[in-house]
Specification:
RTX family exoprotein A; mainly beta; four-stranded antiparallel β-sheet; 86 residues; 1 helix; elongated; single chain
Length: 86
C-alpha cells in the first residue's frame, strides 16, 4: 500500500480476460490495514477464464483521482474431466 493511504481509501482490482471483458473487485481500506501497511485481496475464481488474463490496481482516496498501479499478466488453466489442458 502506498505511503499516506488512509482508512476509507478504495482499492480496485480490474481483471481483464482474454476476450477483453473486465470485472472489478473493490475493497475499502480499514484502520487495521493502514496500521499494518498492507492489504490482502482475492480475485474470485469466476472473474477469470482459461488463457491469458491480467489484473491492474488503482487506489482512490477521497476526492483525489484514482492512482494507477502496475499491470500483472497471468495465465489460467482449469482442469476438465480429461485432466489439465495445456
Amino acid at each position: 500500500m502506498p505511503a499516506g493511504t488512509a482508512e476509507g481509501a478504495v482499492i480496485t482490482l480490474t481483471v481483464t480476460r482474454p476476450d477483453k471483458t473486465t470485472e472489478n473487485v473493490t475493497h475499502t481500506v480499514t484502520k487495521d490495514e493502514v496500521a499494518a501497511g498492507k492489504v490482502s485481496m482475492d480475485i474470485p475464481k469466476d472473474a477469470v477464464i482459461d488463457g491469458q488474463n491480467s489484473v491492474s490496481v488503482t487506489l482512490t482516496q477521497g476526492s483525489n483521482p484514482a492512482k494507477p498501479g502496475n499491470v500483472v499478466d497471468f495465465c489460467c488453466r482449469y482442469p476438465d474431466p480429461g485432466g489439465y489442458r495445456w
